Amino acid sequence: MKKILRLCLMALLFAGCSSGNDEAELIPEPAPQDTTKNETTEMPGTPKAKEYAAQYRVAKLFIETDGGQAVDSKEKKDYRACTIRIESDTAVWNYEGRGRVRGRGNSTWLWYPKKPYRIKLDEKASILGLDEEKDWVLLANYRDPTNLMNTFVFEMGRGLDMPYTNHTRFVEVTLNGDYIGLYQLTEQVEQGKSRVNISGKQGWLLSLDVDDGPAEAPEEEDNFWSQVYRMPVCVKSPEAEDYATPETLTEDASRALATLESAIHNNDYEALDIICDIPVMIDYLLIQEFIYNVEVAAPRSIFLFKDKGDEAKWTFGPLWDFDAGFDFDWGHMTTGHTFFSDYRETVLGTDPARHISNYNYTPSFFTDMWKSKKFVSKVKNRWKEIRPHIMAKFWPEAKTYADAAAEAMERDAKRWPIDKQPKTEINRMEKWLNSRVVYMDNIVNGYPL
How far apart are CA 328 and CA 26, in angstroms? Predict the structure, then answer.
């Protein structure tokens, strides 16, 4: 109840760093996970499959829980044992195995009829051409009438070569014989060889998130308030049982994060450059501002990681959770699907250092570096590099997923009827993005030096 009240209060408010070159390769070679994406082995009876490379095609995913148990909880203790089967037009991607399934998410689990899920396989496996692992996520995207918001940001991050950016695989899910619609299958954000590849015992993967922080989850032992900016932080890795001294886990994480906080608080570019991957930080913050992701203001779903060793740098990411961007109408957050009304708003601000923004309470952790002329100069130069690729490369890549999933989107819309049509909303999204690019030029060019 406390969490719901806090979310409603927020609704009212909403309504009123890798070493090396500073320039990332904009369009990298495909990551190892995608080496099979041009596989052309189709199953019989699927002529549509020939039109798209394998990664864009919609597979069918079947979950059968033991005894037909309902998946009605997101608690870890309520995982349901199940059999998971995947049918793909790419024959080598077919899969069947045992695992467990439960709900996931916060507002997405509480408010909406179409539920998101988390799958944990009994044995690591490659799913739909992605690197093998046990943990997978099924994003319902019920609030998002385009089904593309996360996909677009993932493709933007991948195009900018941001580390450990998630992939998209669309699947139509049947749970215990009930067709429950189109889902986005992607990796769980976690430490792992094929995920955030840092030490599981000495690296740090942290989440800045009010829902997982000490105020909303006081019963947990893996969260704390950050020392400098008083942000809610949850330790995602290492887990206490893997840490050398479990009793000091949060204290050590807090001290480690405080070094990054202090450098930002002092807006000391040289000091920050030693401990943080600044180019990735800039890309990360530009993406958040570009799509007007108000989760930054909470904060929610903001990840940071650092590997073991004194020379390892703090890095922003992976990118996660973007159905609160794109000018979402928070006035109807529990029932609405309204986006794209206005492209002229900011989260970080037109003058971030002074919090000149629609969200003037955004933590200064994300804005204090705008007090550094060198940092702002880097931001301006990087935006000039990114801008030409947004609608020429990143959007067309995301749009291909939508084109390949058009029929599945129609079936999903019949299963979960809302007051929006996917094709219309995708067109509105494209128009909004085009307008947003122009508006961002004005924002970035106007940042005070």
Answer: 28
310: which residues sit within 8 A by CB, 6+ positions away? none
Backbone CA torsion sign across 45, 46, 48, 53? negative
Is the N-terminal amide bond of 318 cis, ω within 30° of 0? Answer: yes
Q: What's the token pair of residue 173?
A: 């899910």
Angle between helices 422-445 and 406-415 (to 10 degrees): 110
Q: How many CB atoms lie within 10 A of CB 54?
A: 23
Place of tokens 């991948």: 158
Q: Which of 164, 155, 151 is nearest to 194 (CA)?
A: 164
Rounded to whole angstroms, what are the CA distances from 339 to 118, 150, 328, 356?
26, 14, 4, 23
* pLDDT over 50 (residue 237): yes
CA 48 centroid distance within chain? 29
Interval 382-402: pLDDT, tens: 999 999 999 999 999 999 999
Cα separation, 296 vs 289, whole angstroms: 9
Task: Return the H-helix or E-strand segment holding 290.
Answer: helix 278-290
What is the model's pTM? 0.89
User: 337 and 330 in contact (C-beta within 8 Å)?
Assistant: no
Q: Are 340 and 350 in contact (CB under 8 A)?
A: no
Instruction: Report d(CA 347, CA 357) in Å as an integer.
Output: 6
**What mean pLDDT comes out for the span 270-280?**
98
Written as six digits, the tokens of 389 are 């690729």
Q: What does the alpha-carbon distance between residue 233 and residue 207 come to, in Å, rounded to a whole number?
A: 6
User: How many CA within 13 A on the CB side of residue 204?
Assistant: 30
How remote is the C-alpha of 25 from its chain's centroid?
Answer: 21
